[in-house]
């Protein structure tokens, strides 16, 4: 059974006897975003070689472009950390 353990600076994903560890959870999000971004542009480029698939290729380019805009947003969210510093009286 897979489960995820979220520590302060690490994200551990346990899959049976295996464990994937990332030093920051936003790094995993960034890597997944970059991987899918490249995938959309690669598939879209291949689709542009075939006339009936050009519209689907253009849609994949639009999705990839939106993900390019998401990259700095993810970095900004990662840069800012919010915590409750209020003391109990």
UniProtKB/TrEMBL annotation:
Record the organism: Virgibacillus subterraneus
Mind telling me which residue stretches traverse the membrane in this protein? 28-50, 56-77
The organism's superkingdom is given as: Bacteria
The answer to whether UniProt assigns keyword Membrane to this entry is: yes
Residue ranges occupied by any YrhK domain in the UniProt entry: 25-78
Instruction: Please state what the protein is called.
Output: YrhK-like protein
Task: Tell me the keywords, alphabetical order.
Answer: Membrane, Transmembrane, Transmembrane helix
């Amino acid at each position: 059974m897979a489960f995820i353990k979220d520590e302060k600076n690490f994200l551990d994903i346990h899959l049976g006897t295996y464990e994937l560890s990332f030093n920051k959870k936003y790094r995993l999000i960034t890597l997944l975003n970059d991987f899918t971004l490249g995938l959309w542009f690669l598939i879209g480029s291949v689709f542009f070689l075939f006339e009936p698939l050009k519209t689907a290729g253009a849609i994949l380019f639009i999705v990839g472009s939106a993900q390019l805009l998401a990259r700095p947003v993810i970095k900004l969210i990662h840069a800012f950390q919010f915590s409750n510093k209020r003391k109990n009286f």
